[in-house]
């Protein structure tokens, strides 16, 4: 067990292990801070979090710097975070409007933020977005395990490693993929048995606000997002290894293929549910 060293100005104390996600190892809490391994994206994350704070966004960590061990230091957000698999309370239909409002606040606060340009990596597949939809930067990983609840409602977000360019519709689809969830029934956790994807998607979508993303744009963004994800995830598995490779080896390619086929069969039902 390493505690933060004396002299770096950050609170010292026992390290409490935090629940593990799929990719990042060694995320711990010390007092009211979280320590995460420093990443190539950490600078962009720090700039984005500062932008969100300046835009008045509550419910996101502040980036405080790096400790003596070189780890990123962020503020700890107190609250309840769903586990994996999610508990019944986090799978209830009535949490979805709160998730939609949280995503809308994030997107509105993100307007105007520009990511520092990075050299494109040759051969790395890029996400596909609906034609003409304006790009924004977002956290792009609004999963239950990255969402902090307060007094029963979605309130905050953690884990900004995947931040990047997207569109509102694409990020809303991505969020729905995790929360509705949008996947073949065979791939859904048992806690979602008997739930109605159309009704759940509608709860999320209405709360986000149909004024900025219309139904056809949302469905088009879903088709493109799902169709493009196998190439992206395969590339990540082959080139980044670690948790990406574990997810791929555990059958993620099949999950993605079944999602694409399932979505094609329910697209009309979803359209009706959203109208
Ligand atoms: N700033 C924070 N405030 C409160 N809880 C946090 C914070 N950061 C992380 N956590 C908790 O720790 C868990 C893991 O952290 P995080 O999501 O950052 O890493 P990860 O999921 O392992 O990373 P990845 O998704 O890249 O694999 C989260 O699910 C959450 O429960
Ligand atoms: Mg996470």
Bound molecules: adenosine-5'-triphosphate, magnesium ion
Strand order of the largest sheet: 1-2-3-5-4
Q: How widely separated are the two ends? A: 54 Å
Number of strands: 9
The total count of helices amounts to: 7
Mean pLDDT: 95
Q: What's the architecture of the largest domain in CATH terms? A: Alpha-Beta Complex
Biased composition (Gly residues): 1-10
Organism: Jatrophihabitans endophyticus
InterPro entries: Kinase-like_dom_sf (IPR011009)
Protein name: Phosphotransferase enzyme family protein
Distinctive features:
single chain, 275 residues, alpha+beta, Aminoglycoside 3'-phosphotransferase, Chain: A, domain 2, 2 domains, 7 helices, globular, binds adenosine-5'-triphosphate, binds magnesium ion
